[in-house]
Amino acid sequence: MKRIGARLAPWGGLLVFSFPAAAGAHSIRVYSEFQRIDPFGEVVAADRPPHPGIKPREILSPAVARNAFASFRIAVTLQEGGSYTLHVGQNPENMFRATVYKERFVKSAAAWVPHGLEAVALPYTGTLPEPSGIIPAQTTATFWLDIWIPFDAPAGRMKLEPQVFAEGHWATYPMEVRVTAAVVPALPVSHTPAAPTRDPSDASARAALQGYLCGETAGRISPGAYTVSGLIRRNALQDASLAQLLETRLSKEEVRRLLLAVTGENWCASGADPKRVSRR
Questions:
Q1: Rounded CA separation 8/172 (Å)
Q2: Which end of the chain is more exposed for a tag (fewer CB within 10 A), N or C?
């Protein structure tokens, strides 16, 4: 349940984000999957904390399950523009299968929001503003970091360090990933849809969790095109699958009670909206 508890924190109203790893004209930052960053280095309005008093916490030692993906967002900011090179270091080497996607921005109302994903090879070199010139005065490029933790990975602490080279020196965001003993079984069946771009980024995860808690299942999902909301849904289905595994030791009602206690909401109430639950 460590993985589920950690991932439910943002759904309960605490949206996780972090600060620049190095001060100066360029920086690299790591965010939770639930916080989209715009081309100017700011959190997209729909993903900001609902209350100004909510305190951020840095993503330094995330817990992950085995036989599963874990995802993070990387933001590279160059205030003065120029070229940069992104890399992701691991220690031990190749403990995780790391895939990096460059996020593609789409216009949503008056704002630019990351939505599409394009796989890139590491090290990746780019420039800001981007050569297309579609987004004037762009200072930030954003990336989706997907790490796959094998089922036989040893439990313990592993180093994962997103790094950016610009202006003649490196900026590093050090992370210590905690691999737990939990092994995620096959994904459950679900037809929960990925959320529209205008919705908060955790809406896809809320819908998937609501499907598990309230017994709404259908045919198995198809992979489809990779989008930000689609991968958030995939990760939430992993959590639901892990919860189903706990039903072999606890009753489903007990697992459901524990999850409802974490979120503090009645997800199965008549008319409950997965986009709005716990977003007071």
A1: 27
A2: C
